[in-house]
Amino acid sequence: MEIPFIKMHGLGNSYVYLDLFKSQVAEELLSDLAQKVSNVNTGIGSDGLILIHPSEEADVGMRIFNKDGSEGKNCGNGLRCTAKYAYEAGLVKNRIFQIETKSGNVDVEVMVHNEKVYEITINMGRPRLSRSSIPMVGEELETVVNEPFKVGNQVLYVTAVSMGNPHAVFFVDTIAEAPLNELGEIIERDPRFPEGVNVEFVEVVNDRELNFRVWERGSGITMACGTGACAAVVAATLNQLIPKNQTIRVHLDGGDLMVKWDQAGFVWMTGNAEVVAAGTFHYV
Ligand SMILES: N[C@@H](CCC[C@H](N)C(=O)O)C(=O)O
What we know:
Layout: E1 2-10, E2 13-19, H1 30-38, E3 48-53, E4 60-66, E5 71-72, H2 76-88, E6 96-101, E7 104-113, E8 116-123, E9 144-151, E10 154-162, E11 166-171, H3 180-188, E12 198-206, E13 209-216, E14 220-222, H4 226-238, E15 248-252, E16 255-261, E17 267-271, E18 274-282
Parallel strand pairs: 2-3, 4-6, 11-12, 13-15
Antiparallel strand pairs: 1-2, 1-18, 3-4, 4-5, 6-7, 7-8, 8-17, 9-10, 10-11, 12-13, 13-14, 15-16, 16-17
The structure holds the ligand N[C@@H](CCC[C@H](N)C(=O)O)C(=O)O.
The ligand N[C@@H](CCC[C@H](N)C(=O)O)C(=O)O binds next to strand 4, helix 2 and helix 4.
Protein name: Diaminopimelate epimerase
EC number: 5.1.1.7
Active site: 75, 225
């Protein structure tokens, strides 16, 4: 089967995108297709697959599948790429529009120069903080902030945040010491997170900057995670490491995102998105 695709990335977090306004793929093939396109040797090479589809609730819809074929409910970098594509391909006519995700609709604004989108701001909604909304097992509390979290012989301290998908944030003294390879997969699959978790290590540089590295659920180490950067700002605020209602520059492996958790409780993310390639994937 020949499947038309576009490859895009947000700060190096790359996905193969299918425009389902133009073509269709059967639901039962999607998980397998995500694994195949993601393979760097036998596929296109990406962190997963994203579907851009017609929506009855918003202007356009987005679904995300991780590299291992599992479906996620939200994707910050994917949202910026979807927004860029939707505007440039004429799926939407205005610079301000809505995208539907499996975790709700988000408001989007694209900045345009010569008909090209060069920056995207997304209202990522209010973080969900209760233990059951992560979800994380244990006594239901309003928040899970700096809670001791034993992994093997070590005790780490976790702050848990849902941005529509689950994040476990750990603060480290220096980002170079973030134990991504050693602990990323172990924490992702820890039974205390029944749906798995995205794992972030964060260094507070000062009250306006964070250094950030991520192990993503279903994809492993990636160069950036938009929902993760939002979760990091929320977690740093909850731990009183940065002030609320201030724009924070988050340094990810693939570049920077600007994130603000505002007075009304909404998290705003601003960054760019790039098109890498377009073509046809030969799916067998
Ligand atoms: N890269 C994403 C998040 C993708 C989904 C995530 N791995 C999950 O399973 O929740 C982002 O930019 O937010």
